[in-house]
Each structure stands twice: as structure tokens, then as C-alpha cells.
UniProtKB/TrEMBL annotation, chain A:
Domain NAD-dependent epimerase/dehydratase: 5-182
Superkingdom of origin organism: Bacteria
SUPFAM superfamilies: NAD(P)-binding Rossmann-fold domains
Pfam families the record matches: Epimerase
Protein name per Swiss-Prot or TrEMBL: NAD-dependent epimerase/dehydratase family protein
Organism: Leekyejoonella antrihumi
Length: 329, 411
């Protein structure tokens, strides 16, 4: 049973929310939040320790505070949060490696919960309609969060093998959408006009921030181990979503994605991630049977509700303003 | 169209009252030269919609945009227009720039475009022999559909199947081909269950997979519950632009065991062509001779779900594009499994894409029960191959008997 929880990445939106949620939990004795940068938001009762998980100091915290559960959320979804793709990768992959090395030495540790992403399944025309947890990508992610998530999962699986005494649970979440949260998909829907692949219309699922927090909370307290897919019910296609948000679409040839990325940046439209193109073409669905049966989560919001909530009124301006303080025109 | 001068003032006022202000304006120096004078547009409600649209197209729109505030008095839009003094046209002008305008067509308001579309729908409906309330109902139904599509207000299922699109666009598009071109005759539709899952297994032929589309219409139209059939397609389908996303919307998904089992487990009527490209791309000389059924993956899926297998024999599809040759080099270059050469293609160019109007018969055979074998039988190659052979034999025999009774290819 969780008693002392260490949460990494608490300066992120999800990390901060989890620190607050868990610190209000009477079952827990203490919640320690760790991040390389201090959080700008309220952390509740949680105690913040400024530490980079890439630094061996994290091991000391684990043993001194007698942490029994680690909730690893220190994974950045987009490269802009880190400054560049290489530092994103550094924080995501090297950070996880260091954290796992520290976890392996900590003898009080009983449980590790990590947030992975459904991007590990990739996107290809040979994909099944819905990926279950035991399936692997037909065409793996080429870069960005997808590739990092694959690497992170490999290290976590290795850790689980080497430390049989620690229960490991990984949640592969669909793209999480919530106020202030930036993902590649929310960046995409924040563009003034959406480049859509000509002749393709990928399907996607979303997960509301509240449901993501509920899933992580259940994973921290529960007994479930292994991989669990987490997503809201129902699906949307890219074009349907554009119509729901009243966004204009610009059909582009799928192969021209890098060009579109550069053009979007040149025109100052915002971020279009070329690696997303496969996803926009073929989309992805994940099966959430384990989420319901093993984790015991009933999402409160469907994919469409999450989307409409975030993008219906003035496409994502609210989201962007929450991040940039409304500086964007 | 009623002329401005011929209209009496009170009549126009009521008309304007009926329509919330929807006026067009144009400066008409030719009429009396004064700049303040303008001929007000007409309220749209009292004229037929199609005429309104022509009216709005006739007027020179750009000038209305360049000098809007000078010509139009400052006034909020209201239901009853204010009286305007010194105007040849009696009713008040409303400013066109207040209305949403279609980009690229400056003079064309969305309102006018919609009215034009409604008028065209009515015209098309009456041309198709619809009248009165039925016509109005159909027009309203179509408009509601367009609204749902434009606002994204529709649902897709886990496989990307879009029932709204299939019902309103996809099947109506295929129906003329089904009813008038191939004149499809359906037999044994009672073998399709009313609501449980079942696996329809059919022969594949005709160079282009039109047989799948026709069977989809056949099951939807002939079955008393109007069931949607969910086809399993090759990955090439989902790689191809447009084709892939259309196929998903119309209910197809990847021909792989996870998807087939998921469909059957959720009680869907699933259709598969086990011959795949071997069947559809075979030379005309081998018509109606079933190709290999592969490893019987479809049987495994049916066994796992305990769903019955319904053999389906399609006669007529072989003759739509008789494949005389196969340009293998070209096919390999383009990444196709075959490149058909038919008597008309590529000789006649695009005309070669018109299928020959053969007469089709689709016969659904008696369901072959699989539930009694148990789920474990899915792992037993003996059972799987035996069932696969049984299905193949049934289809082949039905094809022969249908062919022997067929009078001619085209009638």
C-alpha cells in the first residue's frame, strides 16, 4: 500500500495536478514532488524538492524519505517545453534511466507507476482498428514522444525484470487534453488552419485531464501491474474534429510534412510536427478493456466531449493563452 | 421574378417582416444618378429561392464592399426595417457585409447559396418524381445531413465506420449501379441472421473489388433489418489515399484476425474474401474457379467468436472487367498486386473504367455453425482447414449450379 509517494515532473500540468490530488489523499503519509524547475502552480500539501532526475541526488531522496511508490511523470510531450528535441530526449530518456537506476538501489521501493503514451503503437495502414496492450507497433514511431516512449518502456521493462520485488505499472495514455496542457495534438489544433493529409483521415482518441489524473491515482493505489491503455470512449477523425472546432483545413500531400512544418513556422502559425503526419493519415485506436476491468476506471468524458470542451470556442486560444499568458495574437 | 417597381409598398413590408432582414443593395446610378439612391433588394422569403440566388449574383458585389458605410445608413439589423426617405425602392436596405459571405465568391452570401441549394434539391426531387410532403421531407433530410457533416456532428465507431455517411451518401451512390447496371438478384437473404454476428465468406472476382460493394448494398437493401455489412480489406486499400478513408467510413477494416474477431465479438455482420488478390486478379480464362483460401484465418476468427459462417456466391462479377492480360512489370513498378489489361483498358483510356453490364446473382448459402466446435478448435489446424475446405466447396458448387442456370452473361 502506498504511503510515501514521490512524483517526478511536478512542474508540468499533469505532475502538478497529481501532486495536488495525491496530497489531498488521507491514505498517504507524504507526497514529495520533484522537478528540475520550480512549479508555478499550487502543489497542495506536497513537498517540493528541486532536483533533476538526471542527477544521482534523486537516489538520496528516495532512500532518505523512505519512498515506497514512485510516480514517474517527468516525460515531456513536445520539444518546445525542453527547448529543443535533443534536450527533450535527454530529459525523457536519460532522466528515466537515472531515475530507474536510483529506484533499483532504493530498498524501500514497492511500486513504480509510469505514464507512457499510446504513441508507442505508431500509426500505419496495417494497424488493427484497436491496439490491445500485448500488440506491438506495425511501424514504429520515427521520432519525438513516440520514440522516447518506446525507449522509456524498454528501460522500465528491464527494471521490472531486474527488480522482481517492485510492482511496475505503465499507463499508455491517449493524447491528454486539458487547460494549459500542451501536446503535439493540442499544438496541431491550435494552428489557424489545419494542414490535413490529402485523401486520408486518421481516427484518434483523447483523454481528459481529469480522467488521466483519476487513472494515475488508481494506478498508484491499486494492485494492477503491467501495461494498461487509457483513453476516453469514442473516436473522432481529424477532419471531423476540424469541423467541430470550425477550423479551416488545408489539404496537403502527406509526403510534404517537413515542408509544411517549415512553412508553418515561417508564417508564424505555430507548431506543426512533421512526425505527426502518419498519425494524421492513419490515426490510432487503443482498446481500453484493461482500463475498465483491471484498473477500474470509467472515463467521465468521451473523446468528443474532451475535444469540444477544449476547442469548441475559438480553437484552442484558451489553451494557448493559459500557457503564453495571452501574448499570442 | 417580381420587379422592384411593380411591387407595392405594403406587400414588401410584410415580406421584409417575414424574413429577418435579408436585403441586398446596389448603387444604381443609371436609374436616377443620385448616389444616395439605391434599389433595395428584395426580401428573400417572398421569392423562390433559386431566383434569389440569381439576383444576388447579378448585382456587382465589389462596389458594395468598397463603399459600404457611405451608402448604407448606420442602423442595427432589425426585424422590421426602418422607413427610408427619398428612396426609389420602398423597403430598407440591409447591409450585405453583415451577412456571412462565402470566401472567393464575394457577392454570394451563404444564405443565398443555401437557398439555391434548396431550390436545386427541390428541382431534383420533383424530377425524380417526388411530390408534396414527401419531397419536403427528403429535402429537409438532406439539409439536416449536410448540416451534420459541415459541423462534424456525427459519430464513428471503433473501426471508423460512419453509419450516417454510409446511409446518406455511400449506399445511394452505389444503388444505381446495383439496381440498373448489374441488376443484382439476391437469393437466400433469409440465411443472414437478424442481429447476431456472422461471417459472410464470398468469392472474389472482377479485377476491381466491386463485388464487395454490391454485396454491401444487397445485404442492406434486401435484408429485412437493413444490416450493414463490415468488409475486411487488404492493407493496400488502407494505404491508398481516398480509397482507404472511404473504405473505413463505409465500414471496412483491415483483414487481420484481431479486427475480424473484434467485429464478430461485437455482433457485427462481417464479410471476407479469403481469395484476396489471387481471386480478384485472376485471368478471365479461370473465371468462377476458386483460388486457394489461404491458411483459413477467417475460420479461426469465426471459431473464436463462435459465429456462423455464411457462404456467399457471386455470379456476374467475373465479367465486368474481363482480364485478358496482366502487365506484371508495370504492376510491380506501381506497387499493385496486378495490372489488368481488359478488352477496353487501357486501350480506350478512361472509357475502359466502365464495367461491362453483366447480370449479377448473389446467393447466400445456409449458415455453417462453428459454435459447437468450441473456442479451442481455433488452435486445431485440422478443424480449421476442414471447415475452410467445406466453405470453399459450398461456394464452388453453388457457383457451378448458378452458372448452369444462367441464360446469358448480360441478361
Amino acid at each position: 500500500m502506498a504511503n510515501v509517494v514521490l512524483v517526478t515532473g511536478v512542474s508540468g500540468v499533469l505532475g502538478g495536478l497529481m501532486a495536488r490530488t495525491l496530497s489531498n489523499d488521507p491514505q498517504l503519509e507524504r507526497v514529495i514532488g520533484v522537478d528540475a524547475v520550480p512549479p508555478l502552480h499550487d502543489m497542495g500539501r506536497a513537498q517540493f524538492v528541486r532536483a533533476d532526475i538526471r542527477n544521482p541526488m534523486i537516489g538520496k531522496i528516495l532512500s532518505q524519505e523512505r519512498v515506497d511508490t514512485v510516480l514517474h511523470l517527468g516525460v515531456l510531450a513536445t520539444s518546445r517545453q525542453a527547448g529543443s528535441r535533443s534536450s527533450q530526449k535527454e530529459i525523457n530518456v536519460i532522466g528515466t534511466m537515472q531515475l530507474l537506476a536510483a529506484c533499483q538501489k532504493a530498498d524501500t521501493l514497492e511500486r513504480l507507476v509510469a505514464k507512457s503514451s499510446s504513441t508507442v503503437y505508431g500509426s500505419s495502414p496495417r494497424d488493427p482498428a484497436m491496439f490491445t496492450e500485448e500488440m506491438t507497433a506495425k511501424r514504429g514511431a520515427l521520432g519525438g514522444l513516440g520514440k522516447d516512449s518506446v525507449d522509456i518502456e524498454t528501460y522500465i521493462r528491464g527494471f521490472a525484470r531486474r527488480s522482481p520485488g517492485v510492482d511496475v505499472c505503465m499507463l499508455r495514455t491517449a493524447s491528454i487534453i486539458g487547460p494549459g496542457l500542451r501536446t503535439a495534438l493540442s499544438d496541431y489544433f491550435s494552428l489557424p488552419a489545419l494542414p490535413v493529409p490529402l485523401g486520408f483521415d486518421g481516427r484518434f482518441q483523447l483523454l481528459g485531464l481529469v480522467d488521466a489524473a483519476a487513472a494515475l491515482r488508481l494506478a498508484v493505489h491499486g494492485q494492477v501491474t503491467g501495461i494498461v491503455n487509457v483513453a476516453g470512449d469514442g473516436m473522432l477523425t481529424i477532419r471531423q474534429a476540424a469541423r467541430l472546432a470550425r477550423l479551416r483545413t488545408i489539404p496537403v500531400v502527406a509526403q510534404s510534412a517537413p515542408l509544411v512544418q517549415q512553412t508553418a513556422r515561417y508564417l508564424g502559425w505555430g507548431q506543426f510536427d512533421a512526425e505527426q503526419m502518419d498519425f494524421l493519415c492513419f490515426g490510432r485506436g487503443i482498446d481500453t478493456t484493461r482500463m475498465r476491468v483491471d484498473l477500474g476506471l470509467e472515463p467521465t468524458m468521451t473523446t468528443r466531449e474532451v475535444f469540444e470542451d477544449a476547442f469548441r470556442n475559438g480553437p484552442a486560444r484558451g489553451l494557448l493563452d493559459a500557457v503564453t499568458g495571452g501574448s499570442r495574437a | 421574378m417580381p420587379e422592384d417597381q411593380s411591387k407595392s409598398r405594403p406587400a414588401r413590408k410584410t415580406a421584409a417582416r417575414k424574413a429577418t432582414v435579408k436585403k441586398t443593395e446596389r448603387p444604381t446610378p443609371g436609374r436616377n444618378g443620385s448616389e444616395s439612391t439605391r434599389v433595395s433588394g428584395r426580401a428573400k422569403a417572398d421569392t423562390p429561392a433559386g431566383q434569389t440566388s440569381t439576383a444576388s449574383r447579378k448585382r456587382p458585389p465589389r462596389s458594395a464592399f468598397t463603399q459600404p458605410s457611405r451608402t448604407a445608413p448606420e442602423r442595427a439589423l432589425r426585424v422590421v426595417p426602418d422607413p427610408v426617405v427619398g428612396e426609389s425602392g420602398p423597403a430598407a436596405p440591409a447591409r450585405i457585409q453583415d451577412q456571412p459571405v462565402i470566401p472567393g465568391l464575394p457577392g454570394m452570401t451563404i444564405e443565398a447559396a443555401v437557398n439555391a441549394a434548396v431550390w436545386m434539391l427541390r428541382a431534383a426531387g420533383s424530377a425524380a418524381g417526388l411530390e408534396g410532403a414527401e419531397l419536403e421531407r427528403r429535402v429537409a433530410q438532406t439539409l439536416a445531413f449536410v448540416r451534420r457533416r459541415l459541423t462534424g456532428d456525427y459519430d464513428i465507431d471503433d473501426f471508423g465506420f460512419d453509419a450516417d455517411f454510409t446511409e446518406e451518401v455511400w449506399l445511394p451512390l452505389l444503388r444505381p449501379l446495383y439496381q440498373h447496371w448489374f441488376r443484382v438478384e439476391v437469393r437466400g437473404i433469409e440465411n443472414i441472421p437478424d442481429d447476431q454476428g456472422a461471417l459472410v465468406v464470398a468469392n472474389h472476382s472482377g479485377s476491381v473489388p466491386i463485388d464487395g460493394l454490391m454485396t454491401q448494398v444487397a445485404i442492406h437493401d434486401a435484408h429485412r433489418r437493413h444490416r450493414y455489412v463490415r468488409s475486411l480489406g487488404a492493407d493496400l486499400v488502407f494505404q491508398s489515399p481516398l480509397v482507404g478513408s472511404l473504405a473505413r467510413k463505409a465500414g471496412a477494416t483491415l483483414a487481420a484476425n484481431p479486427d475480424a474477431e473484434r467485429l464478430l465479438a461485437s455482433g457485427e455482420l462481417t464479410m471476407v474474401f479469403p481469395e484476396g488478390f489471387k481471386g480478384i486478379g485472376k485471368p478471365f480464362g479461370e473465371r468462377y474457379r476458386l483460388q486457394r483460401f489461404g491458411r483459413g484465418g477467417f475460420v479461426t476468427a469465426a471459431l473464436r467468436a463462435g459465429a456462423p459462417i455464411i457462404p456467399c456466391s457471386i455470379v456476374g462479377a467475373e465479367e465486368i472487367f474481363p482480364m485478358m492480360g496482366n502487365a506484371k512489370g508495370l504492376a510491380r513498378m506501381l506497387g499493385f498486386p496486378y495490372f489488368p489489361i481488359t478488352p477496353t483498358f487501357p486501350l480506350l483510356g478512361p472509357l475502359g473504367a466502365i464495367p461491362l453490364p453483366s447480370k449479377w446473382i448473389i446467393e447466400f448459402g445456409e449458415p455453417i455453425e462453428t459454435a459447437s466446435y468450441g473456442v479451442a478448435a481455433a488452435e486445431d489446424p485440422m478443424v480449421v482447414l476442414e471447415l475452410s475446405d467445406q466453405v470453399r466447396e459450398t461456394i464452388q458448387q453453388t457457383l457451378y449450379s448458378l452458372l448452369s442456370r444462367r441464360r446469358s452473361v448480360f441478361f
